[in-house]
Amino acid sequence: DIANNVVRKMDRRGMLSTFAGDSRFGYQGDGHSAVHARFNEIYGIGIDWKGDVLFVADYFNHCIRQIDLHSQRIETIAGKGTAGYGGDGAPPAYALLNRPTAVCGGPCGIVCIAESGNHSVRILSLRHNKIFTLVGGLGPGMGSDGPAEGIQLANPNSVAVDKEYLYILDGANQRVLRVALSEMLDRDKLSVQERH
Predict the structure, then answer these.
(1) pLDDT value for 146
(2) Where does the chain show beta strands of DSSP type E?
(3) Residue 148's closest CA among 193, 182, 114?
(4) Cα–Cα dist 98/81, whole Å
(5) For the segment 129-187, what is each residue's pLDDT rounded down to a tens digit?
(6) Burial letters for 103-135: b for 16+ Cβ neighbours within 10 Å, e otherwise?
(7) What pLDDT, in 10s, does the model give residues 80-114?
(8) Who has the most CB within 10 Å: 48, 90, 174, 189?
(9) What does pLDDT average to over the chain?
(10) What's the CA angle centered on 112, arms 109 and 115, to 5 degrees?
(11) Rounded to whole angstroms, how far apart are CA atoms 42 and 44?
């Protein structure tokens, strides 16, 4: 619920309740119950493959936050609350993000993040506690099929994962790209294919 700065949930009876956020703009609440947290426009949410964690793309706080679905405890896992681009190869807590629009969990403890401000998709490895740029980050642009590191994006605004591929909605370029998961962590072999 972007304008209200909350995440709502609906149970099996159709009852709606607030799961995270107190409806005010801000950046607080880490380490406590998510219902008391503050966000600055939530543009995307995603769940990890085990169904234990909800990821939140906190747009104008320039960070990714995670909520334990059992305890409802919230933490920031990537970004520092200010816009920027940096931190590849380092722990994600030290990374700078710029207007993340979408987030989803993948296999092997990876988290995929679309950043509209950096025109990039970044991968956070929870297993290795590192973040790196997978596609883009070179400014807005376009590119044909080939190695992921040579492709430019323009306002990517959605990501999704299946058992074989990561799919990227490259918004301003009006296309969907895919990256083979089997190659994702091998930077020398990464390749991207455009899907029409």
Answers:
(1) 75
(2) 7-10, 16-20, 42-47, 53-58, 63-68, 74-78, 100-105, 110-115, 120-125, 130-136, 146-147, 156-161, 165-170, 175-180, 191-195
(3) 193
(4) 9
(5) 999 999 998 888 887 777 777 789 999 999 999 988 999 999 999 999 998 877 665 54
(6) bbbbeeebbbbbbbbbbbbbbbbbeeebbbbbb
(7) 999 999 999 999 999 999 999 999 999 888 999 99
(8) 48
(9) 90
(10) 150
(11) 6
Tell how far CA 71 is from the center of its chain. Answer: 21
Could you identify the residue written with the tokens 């970004």? 79
Q: Where are the alpha helices (DSSP H) in 13-91?
A: none
CA atoms of 77 and 126, how far apart (whole Å): 9
Q: Whose CA is closest to 32, among 22, 42, 47, 46? A: 22
Contacts of 165 (CB under 8 A, 6+ apart): 178, 179, 180, 181
Integer Cα distance of 124 and 129 in angstroms? 7
Q: Name which residue leads in pLDDT, 58 or 147.
A: 58
Residue 182: Cβ within 10 Å count:
10
Alpha-carbon torsion 55, 109, 170, 61, what sign? positive
